[in-house]
Amino acid sequence: MAVPVEVINVRRAHDDDALLYGLEHDGVTRRLALLRGSGISVAAVLDDDRYPRAILLGLHGTKKLQEARSLLRFGDRDQASTAILRPSTIAKLRLPRSQDGPHWKNSAEFILNRPAGRVHVVASPPVFVVAKQSLEEMFCNPSLSVKLNSALNACFRNVCDFIKCTKTSVDCVDEAQQVRAFCFAEG
Fold first, then answer.
1. Nearest CA to 70 among 184, 185, 161?
2. Where are the domains of the chain?
């Protein structure tokens, strides 16, 4: 029987679309940031030193493009991170008392709740990413170690462009295709 993921604490970030969890799985403590924006969902698992173990990036589907997910794995494969990032685990996480609407449980709005057909896995050496409070902060202001990793930097930069586009425009197909090319190796 699988060891369950236990919620130690949960709180809202200053961003309405971000939740921060303290989780424990099999004696290992991890932080989980769930972030949601228009057309994009992110789950970032960080260790106690705020080094990312994994970032699961979900891009919503459109009429022209299918839904896509990319798992950015940093360093060794980690059992705690793998357990935390399962859609069934994310869907069962409890909400903070101040949460008004359960959009984290609604798979139509938070695609990481439901099983994916295919997840593109990108392995990267360990890098330092400062835990951020919003999607834009995480992807538009990455750490120096992300900037020095050319492939990861290209992915973060294109996600940043996509997030900025979704705030100003309804049609961000070109930006979504760039994210797919640099983060999902599609196109």
1. 184
2. 5-132
DSSP-assigned letter for residue 141: S
- Tens-digit pLDDT profile for residues 134-187: 777 878 888 787 888 888 889 889 989 988 888 887 778 888 888 888 887 765
Query: Which candidate, 28, 54, 30, places its Cα nearest to that of 43?
Result: 54
What tokens does 125 get?
A: 């050496």
Strands 68-74 and 119-124: parallel
Cβ neighbour number for residue 137 with a 10 Å cutoff: 18
Exposure string for 28-54, b = 16+ CB within 10 A, e = fewer: bebbbbbbbbbbbbbbbbbbeeebbbb
Task: Supply the pTM of this predicted model.
Answer: 0.80
Ordered strands of the 52-59 beta sheet: 5-12, 18-25, 28-37, 40-46, 52-59, 68-74, 119-124
